């Protein structure tokens, strides 16, 4: 990861001072670097040790960072990873444009790998992520979306880049289509599990540890799985309260809403769904060689669901 960070630092540079300032702020704001780690872990697990793995690890981090910049503008977020968002500090216009810069820089970098398959994987991923963003926008403030619609947004918006990151390691190693699909399955399931836990933490996490405001999803009108389960299991009065809060992004009764979500067992049920996805990810590794890299991937899956931030 030190070598990946070196690539990131080198490729972030721009003659435009504001781009340098905002890009460095968001990239170095303390993220988990999960997607770059997947590129490295799968490449190493499958025997590829070329420098291209560092470049592609940086590429997926740039793509992820671009989506964060755009997300925070769309969601009107003020806090991420415990720090003010870029849009809160520099304004919406600058954040959107620097997000565009990171996207374009990512595509410059992926071209240098000289692989049409790499381009295919990452071009599809960025397109699907954009579709996921629009799907989520369409679902805002809608208490009647189905679990299937909710999961579709997760698989498009969040899990797709996890999937692409894992797949890239197999592509670099010239793996068989079967191995490549196993890697992609791991990434997709891990990304889904990760987002499910994020949705749990929006109702039970600690704001300081989590790095964002508790109840942000509700304020933004996002109908996540904990709310869907709580509405299914709650009383008529509880359902009415939840529906009103989703439709209006209302946080006045956040404590009551959190109590309902907890009392209906919605948080634990969502955690169980995340554990099932993590197990699916672990099972997909059976086709890969057993080594310290695949052992790390197994541990990665477990840690993704047993976390508090």
UniProtKB/TrEMBL annotation:
Record flagged with keyword Nucleotidyltransferase: no
> Which keywords describe this protein according to UniProt?
Magnesium, Metal-binding, Transferase
GO molecular function ontology, one term from the record: transferase activity
Q: Which residues form a coiled coil?
A: none
Q: Which Pfam family is one of this chain's hits?
A: polyprenyl_synt
- Kindly give the SUPFAM superfamilies that the UniProt entry links to this protein: Terpenoid synthases (SSF48576)
State which Enzyme Commission number(s) the record gives.
2.5.1.-
Instruction: Write down the top EC class of this protein.
Output: transferase
Q: Which cofactors are reported in the record for this sequence?
A: Mg(2+)
Keyword Transferase present in the record's keywords: the answer is yes
Q: Which top-level group of life is the source organism from?
A: Bacteria
Concerning its family, UniProt says: Belongs to the FPP/GGPP synthase family.
Q: In its UniProt entry, what is this protein called?
A: Polyprenyl synthetase family protein
């Amino acid at each position: 990861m030190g070598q990946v960070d070196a690539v990131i630092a080198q490729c972030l540079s721009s003659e435009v001072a504001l781009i340098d300032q905002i890009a460095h702020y968001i990239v170095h704001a303390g993220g988990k670097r999960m997607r770059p780690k997947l590129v490295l872990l799968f490449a190493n697990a499958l025997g590829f040790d070329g420098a291209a793995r560092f470049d592609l690890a940086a590429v997926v981090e740039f793509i992820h960072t671009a989506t964060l910049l755009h997300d925070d503008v769309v969601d009107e977020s003020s806090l991420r990873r415990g720090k003010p968002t870029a849009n809160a500090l520099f304004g919406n216009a600058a954040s959107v444009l620097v997000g565009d810069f990171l996207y374009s820089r990512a595509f410059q970098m992926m071209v240098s790998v000289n692989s049409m398959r790499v381009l295919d994987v990452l071009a599809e991923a960025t397109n699907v992520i954009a579709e996921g963003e629009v799907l989520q926008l369409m679902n805002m403030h809608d208490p009647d979306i189905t679990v299937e619609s909710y999961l579709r947004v997760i698989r498009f918006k969040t899990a797709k880049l996890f999937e692409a990151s894992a797949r890239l390691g197999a592509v670099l190693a010239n793996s068989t289509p079967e191995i490549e699909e196993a890697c992609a399955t791991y990434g997709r399931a891990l990304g889904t599990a990760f987002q499910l836990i994020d949705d749990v933490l929006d109702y039970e996490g600690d704001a300081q540890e989590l790095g964002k405001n508790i109840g942000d999803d509700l304020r933004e009108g996002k109908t996540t799985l904990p709310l869907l389960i709580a509405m299914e299991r709650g009383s008529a009065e509880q359902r009415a309260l939840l529906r009103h809060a989703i439709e209006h992004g209302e946080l006045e009764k956040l404590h009551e809403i959190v109590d309902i979500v907890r009392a209906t067992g919605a948080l634990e049920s969502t955690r169980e769904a995340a554990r099932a996805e993590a197990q699916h990810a672990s099972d997909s590794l059976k086709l890969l060689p057993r080594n310290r890299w695949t052992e790390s991937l197994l541990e990665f899956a477990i840690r993704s669901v047993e976390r508090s931030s």
